[in-house]
Amino acid sequence: MRHGMVMGPDSRGALPGTRPSVRILVVGGGYVGMYTALRLQRKLRQRLRSGEAEIVVVTPEPYMTYQPFLPEAAAGSISPRHVVVPLRRVLKHCKIVIGEAERVDHAKRTATVTTLATGEDGTGALEIPYDEIVLAPGSVSRTLPVPGLAEFGIGFKTVEEAIGLRNHVIEQMDIASATRDPAVRDAALTFVFVGGGYAGVEALAELEDMARYTSRYYHNIKPSDLRWILVEATGRILPEVGEAMGGYAVRELRGRNIDVRLDTRLDSCEGRIAVLSDGSRFPTRTLVWTAGVKPAPVLASTDLPLTDRGRLRCTAMLSVDGVEHAWAAGDAAAVPDLTSSEPGTETAPNAQHAVRQAKVLADNIVATLAGRPAEDYRHSYAGSVASLGLHKGVAHVYGRKLKGYPAWLMHRVYHLSRVPTFNRKARVLAEWTLAGLFKREIVSLGSLEHPRAEFALAARGDVQPGPVGDAPPKDERPPDTSD
């Protein structure tokens, strides 16, 4: 096999040319993938222009999602297209391949990738050779074998899921307002969230805020009719902000009539009935699962060393331990925390470390190509901030504890500073400003999730739209990333 790109033309129609001196393959377009590729294209600008180097980014989506803003997107405070960053615009000097990395054979320096065209043209998966590889596929939702979870659970990890959940919550209020069956009404107005980490708490808090505001426009729904339940298997929520601030967050949520159940697990949700380990049973049409994540499945299909938790075993220089020309960071990597006094401690798999690791990783690749020594990644954890809805939050930053409006403001300022590109910063700030001047939008656009349902029904007469609130196929509901 010649060492050229064994693949068809990219979406811009450009065919691979002659073999460059070095091809860097980046698997994943999230925090680590995008920031690493962005820094590499800056550092290797001359070599990229001359054709001596090539950066190929393999990602299942053509955008990077800024996940801390998903709760605000679900609540309607931010447009979904401003929560994502178009990779083709940001990574102008990289080749973007929209597809899934199915397997990595590092011994042969090749990655097997399936694309949207794989099943259409009949040519099979792509084999992409590389010289250096950056593995940053991120993570996927970690589920448990809970009966009924696969059928009725809703995730909260992608912008599609966030917008789908917003539409679903408002649709449930529409159902409750129109039904004459008290059981259907109670189930529609009961919202169960499983997982007391950032995703679960912030999503619940923002959506509860939105739904409470929305209820004023229904003639027969009061805020007290809505029942929100947070289920957490441990004895605290938001462990990243510390015990004191986590306790404050529990009191704040309970003060808003949110039922917080600690040391409790979800045993079943069959038949749309949430059964908890404390014996409680809640008929519900909304069960949101945010109970943790696990490494992307592609890591198990590599010949690289993994930890017991399925993450890549890495050095402090962000190279894969004992392997040359392989790098990793973020959720996929187990990186030693050199700032910890306890041996064996690893850096937390969060955005704060991922963005900083990407910078060091890119610099180390450039240094290695130039024959210079690589540097260790070292960063003391600054702290955490969390939003609990509009004008409410908790924070534990550099040893200082904040709550209420100051913490909420810090949450917004911090994440605004971290959103990639000035374009997105300006748009998010403009939307926040407009949201402060005008009333919330309370419209559900659930029909966007089934765009062909009405036409199919009219054209054939025998195709029924999907059930309200059911998630449509992923390829039917991409977010608008245009400007």
TrEMBL record:
Keyword Oxidoreductase applies: yes
Ranges of Basic and acidic residues composition bias in the record: 472-483
Molecular function terms from GO: NADH dehydrogenase activity
Bilayer-spanning residue ranges: 20-38
Source species, domain of life: Bacteria
Region described as Disordered: 459-483
Key words, A-Z: FAD, Flavoprotein, Membrane, NAD, Oxidoreductase, Transmembrane, Transmembrane helix
Pfam families: Pyr_redox_2
FAD/NAD(P)-binding domain span: 23-357
Similarity field: Belongs to the NADH dehydrogenase family.
Protein name: FAD-dependent pyridine nucleotide-disulfide oxidoreductase
